[in-house]
Design goal:
about 300 residues, alpha+beta, six-stranded antiparallel sheet, 6 strands, flat
């Protein structure tokens, strides 16, 4: 009797632990979470540390603004002792003349040759029209150029930037937001000119980044391997197909249009899955196409 009771208690404990383990696993499973739409969720841009990039200026919250200068390099080691002394004195005078905060930013990233390769492919295709016999050589040439930097051990790119700040616009209480932004743009330009002149005396050339260059710089900070997509962002092509999820596109949509949409999606699914290659799948596809042509055809008529 005692043995039976002991076995019963042991099974009860083991069963309880198993149930607890299953409960914990279910709680930790992300697929068991709440899948309902969260209306309080923001857009991805809300998580970026800046509000916008306009006219070559990074706009931060609370009326703070940034401009960025790209600087050339200076081979200090190849200079003579007199040239080094002059560089040091010029740089010291430049540093002492600064009356506003600046930040020096060095970025090392892999060279992105995607644009150059695409241009090269276009040139090769045009050449093959006139000389089709070199297709094998052209294919090998493209492959070699795609891995050139890695093979020669020079796939790193280092750039130098100076970030110029202007955070005093919030103190212009009597001005509107637009007037504050305009005033900040003028002040940033003045500060950029001051830094450019000071570094020019040292022998360092500078160039202010425009909006596309700023977008590429920021994008490359998050995507160092491939930042060519920044062009699509700066030109607006990346957002050409974006739609506002808050608008209900089907609210006043014609019923015949909804029917055509459902039938059209079904036809596309059958084709993409390859079911239409089978006998039954082909028959179903033909019937759906006939139904669409007879009862719907809304998008076809619109096109």
């Amino acid at each position: 009797m005692k043995i039976a009771l002991l076995i019963f208690l042991l099974l009860l404990i083991v069963g309880g632990m198993a149930a607890l383990l299953i409960f914990i696993i279910r709680k930790l499973d992300p697929m068991q979470g709440d899948k309902s739409e969260d209306g309080s969720s923001g857009i991805a841009q809300d998580f970026l540390p800046f509000d916008d990039i306009q006219n070559g200026i990074i706009i931060l919250p609370n009326h703070c603004y940034r401009a960025i200068l790209e600087c050339t390099s200076l081979n200090y080691d190849l200079k003579t002792e007199g040239e080094r002394e002059q560089i040091e004195m010029s740089f010291q005078r430049f540093i002492n003349s600064l009356a506003f905060p600046t930040t020096i930013f060095l970025q090392t990233k892999e060279i992105d040759n995607s644009r150059r390769i695409e241009s090269l492919k276009a040139d090769v295709q045009q050449t093959l029209v006139e000389f089709p016999g070199i297709s094998t050589y052209a294919e090998q040439y493209i492959k070699d150029m795609q891995t050139l930097n890695t093979r020669i051990g020079n796939n790193q790119q280092k750039k130098r930037y100076i970030i110029i700040t202007y955070d005093e616009a919030s103190q212009l209480g009597q001005l509107s937001d637009g007037e504050k932004a305009a005033y900040a743009a003028k002040e940033l330009q003045t500060r950029c000119n001051s830094i450019s002149q000071g570094l020019d005396a040292v022998g360092v050339r500078t160039q202010r980044l425009g909006t596309p260059e700023l977008i590429e710089l920021i994008y490359s900070c998050y995507n160092r391997d491939n930042f060519s997509y920044a062009d699509a962002i700066s030109s607006g092509d990346a957002f050409a197909l974006f739609v506002d999820g808050a608008a209900d596109k089907f609210k006043d949509f014609p019923k015949v249009g909804l029917l055509d949409l459902i039938l059209g999606e079904s036809i596309n699914q059958i084709r993409q899955s390859g079911i239409d290659n089978e006998k039954n799948g082909k028959a179903v596809l033909e019937q759906l196409e006939a139904l669409r042509q007879k009862y719907a055809g809304y998008f076809e008529e619109e096109g």
